[in-house]
Amino acid sequence: MTKYDCSESTPATIAEVIGSWGALLSDAKKDDLEEDLNIDGQLLYTVRNENSGSIEAVFDLKNILKLYSKNLVIFFSPEVVRSDDGLTPEEVKSAGELLVAIFTELIVLSKDQDLKKIKIHSHDKILLACFSAFATYLATKGGWKATAYGQWIELVEVPVVV
Amino acid sequence: MSNKQVDTEAVEAIVSTLQSMISKGVNVTSSDMFKYTNAYSAGDESKELPEQKRKAA
Predict the structure, then answer these.
(1) Region of poorest pLDDT, from A3-17, A59-73, A131-145
(2) Domain coordinates in residue numbering, chain A
């Protein structure tokens, strides 16, 4: 199983993303990437594969109104999916591992801020479905209550009954 | 910053969700998450150019 390092972005890591991902993209898509990584109010994190050393995903966790409410945006590296004809089983697994690394980081960040609740918003139905699966998994394991409504999924930490 | 191995069961839950959507015909790569992975099929340039860039990188 791959190990990932999630870190708040720096100008150097953003430049690394634009350089390494951009080398694999058309000029128009590289321009889009630069635009997507330079939006006011972003709180960007990079996810580095510790085996390969490459940055495989970037995510943005912009706060919405409250500290516990976040708009989540994720972009995968062009290296994560190499085929342009759907996803291979290996690519589905890689995407799954990256998503779990990102979602786990959300939990770690909310605990660092002493938050007992995290609300994730996204316009992306596929991303929401994946986060819903993760939230349901946490709720099944115990210690969390998961609720989904509209484009939001809420996770609330609950006392574990021993 | 956190640095850890991902939870295998959580990965299985998400992989199962993605596979279920794929089997139902959902185009999961339409997600913004894959905006830069399927860029070379977006039609804004020939498919060959980004592939050549990929090989050169």
Answers:
(1) A59-73
(2) 4-157
How many Cα atoms within 13 Å fall on the side-chain side of residue A94?
21
Task: Note whether A92 contacts B44, CB cutoff 8 Å.
Answer: no
Q: Which numeric CATH code is attached to A4-157?
A: 3.40.630
Q: Which residues of B touch A7 (CB under 8 A)?
A: 1
pLDDT tens, position by position, A87-138: 899 999 999 999 999 999 999 988 888 888 999 999 999 999 999 999 999 9
pTM over 0.90: no
Residue B43 has pLDDT above 50, yes or no: no
- Paired tokens of A70: 């976040």
Residues in chain B with CB shorter than 8 Å from the CB of A29 are 36, 39, 42, 44, 50
Q: What per-residue confidence (pLDDT) applies to B53?
A: 52
Set of chain B residues whose Cβ sits within 8 Å of the Cβ of A32: 35-36
β-pair type (A117-121, A66-76): parallel
Whole-number average pLDDT of chain A: 90
Interface membership of B28 toward A (CB under 8 Å): yes
> How many angstroms separate the CA atoms of B16 and B5, rounded?
19
| A1 has a chain B CB within 8 A of its CB | yes
Q: In what order do the strands lie in the sheet with A55-64?
A: A144-149, A152-157, A117-121, A66-76, A55-64, A44-49, A3-8, B2-5
Contact check, Cβ <8 Å, A75/B13: no
